[in-house]
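Recap slide: Cell division protein, sequence and predicted structure.
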Amino acid sequence: MKKLSPSLSKYLPGLLLIVGAIVLVLPQVVTQQMLLGSDSIFHYNRFYEAAMQLKNGNLHYFITMYGFQESGRIVNAVYGPAVAYFNGILLLLGKTWFNFQIISDIAVYLLAGTGMYLLLRKCAIRRSYSILLALFYLTTYAIQYWTISQAFSGWAASLLPFCLFPIVTFVRKKEVNILELAICTALMIQTHFLTSLFVIMIYVPCFGYAFFKTDKRGKLLGKLCLAIGLFLLLTANIWAGLLEVNLSNKILSPFINKNMYGTAISLNGYRLTNWLAPIALVFFGALQIILLVKYWKKISALNRLVSLEALVFLVLSSKLLPWKWLSVNVPGVDILQFPFRFFVPYIVLLIISIGLFFMELGWSKKKVLVALSVIVIASFGQAMYNLNTALSKWDNATEFMYHKNTLYFNDDVQDIKNSFFSTDLSLGLKYVQKSTPDYLPLYTDTTDPRKVHGYHNYHWQVIQKEVVFRKIATKNGLVVKWKAKKAKQITLPVVGYSHTEVTLNGKKLKSSEVKHTTIGMIKVNQKKGKNTLVLSYHPAKLVNWAIILTPFIWVICGGIILVKRFRGNK
C-alpha cells in the first residue's frame, strides 16, 4: 500500500475529525429539529447572560442582568465562567438557538476528538489507531450527553483527554512538567468542578508511581509545588468567586438525588441504551479486563496504572457499590448526585488502555485497523440512530422538550418551537422558563433544599412576578421599575446577597432596611406612584483583583507555550 505524503499525513487526523463532527450533526441540520434536554434551559440562560454582557459591553461578573429572569442572582461566577463566556461568543456567532446548538455540538466534538487524539499520540500509540479511537470517543455517551441532554459534563468530557497529559509525563518520564500540570488541572477547574476532582483522583496514583521510581524526589516535589502555585494563579477567579459568595452567604445546595443507587450503571438498569452506548464500549470493557489478567507481566507501567484506574472508576459508577447505604450514612456523598458521572473518566481511561494494548501486544496492524474501522463505522451508525430517536421527540406536542419544573408562557407549541429559531434570543427563554434555584442565598437556618422548597418558591417569587416589573440592564447595575397604588412593603423578583447594594428611589439602603424571603428575594418599602430600584454587587477589592489577574496569567502561559513551540520548530 502506498504511503500517504507527509503533508497529507499531518493534516489527515484533523480533516477526519472535522468530517466526523459534521456527520454527527447532519441529522439535526437536515431535519431542522431542536434537542432541548434536562439541562438546556439552565445552561442557555447562563450563555445568554454571557452573550448579552459581551454584546452590550455591560460586564457584571457576579449578578445576572439578562438571563434567569433578570433576577440579579449569581450563577456563572461560581459555575464554569470561562466556558460560559466562550459559549456566549458561540451564541453571538450563531444568532439563533438552533444555530448555536449546531455550533456548540461541533465545538464539543472537535475538542473531544483533538484531545483524545493528542493524548493517545502522547502515549506513543500509532497515528492510525489514535485517530480511529478518537473518532470512536465522539460516539460515546460521555460526549453525546451534551448533544442530547445539554448536560455540562459533556463539555467536561470533551476537555478531559487534554487534562490527562500529565499522567503520561509522570509515568514515562518520572517528572513534573510545571506548565503542563498547572494548565491541564486549571482547565478542568474552569470548566466543571466535579470532573476536576476525578482528574486529581487519576493524577495521584501516577504521581505516586513517579515519586517512588525516581531518585530525585526533592526536585519532583519542588516542581509539584511550583505547578500548584501556578495552578492557583490560573484559577484565582474561581476561588475568589467561591469564597466571595460562600463565606458571606448561606447558599442553597444543588439538587440532591434521593435515588443514587438507581442512577448507577448496570447491564440491566438505568440508562442502558445511553451510557453503555455504543455497544462496542461494552466489548472494549470486557476485552480490557481479559487482556489485563492475561498479560499483566508483559504490559507497560502506564498501561497497568491506566487499566486499574479505569476499573476503579467503573466500580464507582456501578451498582457494585452500596449507593443506597452510602447516600444515607456517609456525609457529603450526595454532592456526586449521580454515580454514572464516574463513567466519564472510565471511558477515557478505557480508550487509552485499549490503544496501549494494541501497541504492546504486537497484534497485526492490518487486522487491528480493519477491526477498529468496522467498530467506528458501526458506532457512528448507532450514535446517529440514537440522535434521530431523540430528535423525533421534537414533533411531539408534549415531549418536544424536558418539562420537569418547566413553565410555558405561550399556549401555542409551534410559537415556542419557532422562538428557538428566532434571532431574538430572549424569546425562547421567555416562553420557556425553569425554576432552578441553584446558588440562591438562604435566609433560614437550613441549607437542605428539600426543606427550603427552592423550585416552588422561585416559581412563585420570581417567575410569576416578572410581568409586574420592568427591568433594565445598565452599567451601574440592574434597574427595576414599577408603579404602586399605595405605600407598603413589597417583595421584588430580584435576589439580594450579603454584598448586594440596593438603591431605592435614589436612596442607598442600609442592610437593616432591606429584608429578604427565605431564598433571598428582596423586600423593600415602596412609595405610592413610580418606584425605581437599582441593584448592584460590590465584592471585596481582592476578589476583583483576582478576577482581573487570571486572564493575564493565561495569556502569559499561552505566550510561553508559543515561544517554546516556535523555538522547537526552528
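Residues 164-243+540-570 form one domain.
The mean pLDDT is 90.
(End of recap.)
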